[in-house]
Design brief:
The complex is a heterodimer of chains A (83) and B (131).
Chain A (H helix, E strand, L loop, with lengths): L7 E2 L1 H7 L4 H8 L3 H8 L7 H11 L3 H4 E2 L6 H9 L1
Antiparallel strand pairs in A: 1-2
Helix pairs in contact in A: 2-3
Chain B lengths: L1 H20 L4 H30 L6 H33 L7 H24 L6
The chains are: A mainly alpha (83), B mainly alpha (131).
């Protein structure tokens, strides 16, 4: 069985920025709070539907949250874009 | 669903074997067998539906469903290998099908094995929560 490709995400950063607990995010998305932990640690790759739900919740494009490449620090990317 | 039916069939077949040993006519035996299957199976199915649709609704998300289905797949693979080998080992160790005293114990062992194996696999594969 082929292993799933690693999918990196910024969920923990986005959640921290908004001061959300895992439970609050889980309730908003309709999943178990443990699933948020699995997602944040990269131990579970979400379905396309769940990825869209998260993107809609954070009001961001999917590629801003999920990536096949590791994310750099968000502050660095923001600074580069504005500079 | 298959686990429940499989688990039901084994002890009931054991009961049927015992009925034949007791000299109960085959027709009557089959009626008792079918009655037991329906009588025990129907409440179990109702209980399963209740658990799935009422108790767990809203709690089971896609990750949990994926883990549960993986556990079932692994369990079926283990069972389809373990049962024939187990029966073969029982036959060899027992020197054949007779005496039938062995069969009820074997059926009930398989009953609990098939019933609880998916849960054991699920628990075994679930990583420890970091927090």
């Amino acid at each position: 069985m082929a292993s799933e490709p690693t999918l990196y995400n910024r969920l923990s950063v986005l959640r921290a920025e908004r001061g959300l607990t895992r439970q609050a995010l889980a309730d908003a998305i309709g999943v178990n709070y443990q699933t948020i932990g699995y997602l944040e640690r990269g131990e579970y790759n979400p379905s396309l539907g769940l990825a869209f739900q998260l993107a809609e919740y954070f009001d961001l494009p999917i590629e801003a949250i999920f990536s096949r490449e590791p994310h750099g620090p968000m502050s660095t990317e923001l600074y580069r874009r504005s500079a | 669903m298959f686990v429940v039916f499989g688990a039901l069939l084994m002890p009931l077949t054991g009961v049927l074997t015992q009925m034949r040993e007791l000299g109960i006519p085959q027709d009557v035996g089959w009626i008792i067998y079918a009655s037991l299957l329906v009588g025990v199976g129907a409440p179990l199915l109702v209980l399963g539906e209740f658990r799935r649709n009422v108790i767990r609704r809203g709690n089971t998300d896609e990750r949990e469903r994926q883990r549960r289905n993986e556990a079932y797949r692994i369990s079926y693979r283990i069972v389809e290998i373990a049962i024939p080998f187990g029966l073969l080992a029982a036959l060899v160790l027992n020197g054949g099908i007779e005496p039938v005293d062995l069969w009820p114990a074997l059926y009930f062992s398989l009953f609990f094995y098939v019933l609880f194996l998916p849960y054991a696999v699920f628990a075994w594969r679930e990583p420890d929560a970091a927090d």
